[in-house]
Design brief:
The complex is a heterodimer of chains A (106) and B (118). Chain A is an all-beta fold and 106 residues long. Chain A has strands spanning 2-5, 8-11, 17-23, 32-37, 44-48, 52-53, 61-66, 69-74, 83-91, 94-97, 101-105. In chain B, the strands form 2 sheets. In chain B, strands 2, 4, 5, 6, 9, 10 and 11 form a 7-stranded mixed β-sheet that branches. In chain B, strands 1-3-8-7 form a 4-stranded antiparallel β-sheet, with no helix packed on it.
Chain lengths: 106, 118
């Protein structure tokens, strides 16, 4: 089980947003990814293997973590960063997503 | 370029079955897995299954085992996901996504709206 916090994050434009994803047990960091999901669009891969940015993702996005605690950091927040962010992991013979963190501009 | 193109919206009655197709192009189908993910109205993303198109081997989330099946037509590079005994809880946007054996990746279909209603 992946538990994300907070449920909603309101951040001023230009500031930093830090999103948390906590696993119920230790996971292999190779199998942890982050997605951005905007309404009406398909999810967009941001980070894979905990900290590797997907192709075309700006360096304002970074991922870190190990064991049970993982995070996604977005620096210099822009209006295009608004959306819901999900962590994604495969374990126990099935994939799973966290429940999501909604990022909005304050 | 890599593309996943899904079938159009469906409206189904409770108890019926749905079938969503995902046509892959721009890469070799057997080199990647296909994940199925859905989002019910007002809810988050829910992982459903991962398919190895070349081996017709599918791993399915436990809650849908017995109701979800997948097939692959290699001649048309299309993967199908069928869900039977539909209830209103199955109303959602269904996505296919190319990925590894374990995780969905960067390429997704456009989504297919499925509504289950009497």
């Amino acid at each position: 089980v992946l538990t994300q916090s907070p449920a909603t994050l309101s951040v001023s434009a230009g500031d930093r947003a830090t999103l948390s994803c906590r696993a119920s047990q230790n996971i292999d960091s190779t199998y942890l990814a982050w997605f951005q999901h905007r309404p009406g669009q398909a999810p967009r891969l941001l980070i894979y293997a905990t900290s590797s940015r997907a192709k075309g993702i700006p360096d304002r996005y970074s991922g870190s973590g190990s064991g049970t605690d993982f995070s996604l950091t977005i620096t210099r927040l822009e209006s295009e960063d608004v959306g819901v962010y999900y962590c994604h992991h495969y374990g126990g013979a099935a994939g799973t997503f966290g429940q999501g963190t909604k990022v909005e501009i304050k | 370029q890599v593309q996943l193109v899904q079938s159009g919206a469906e409206v189904q009655k409770p108890g019926a079955s749905m079938r969503v197709s995902c046509k892959a192009s721009g890469y070799s189908l057997t080199n990647f897995y296909i994940h199925w993910v859905r989002q019910a109205p007002g809810q988050g993303l829910e992982w459903l299954a991962v398919v190895d198109p070349g081996e017709t081997n599918t791993r399915i989330v436990p809650k849908l085992q017995g109701r979800l099946t997948t097939t692959t037509d290699m001649s048309t590079t299309t993967i199908y996901m069928e869900l039977s005994r539909l209830t209103s809880d199955d109303t959602a946007v269904y996505y296919c996504a190319r990925g590894s054996r374990f995780l969905a990746g960067a390429f997704w279909g456009q989504g297919t709206h499925v509504t289950v209603s009497s």
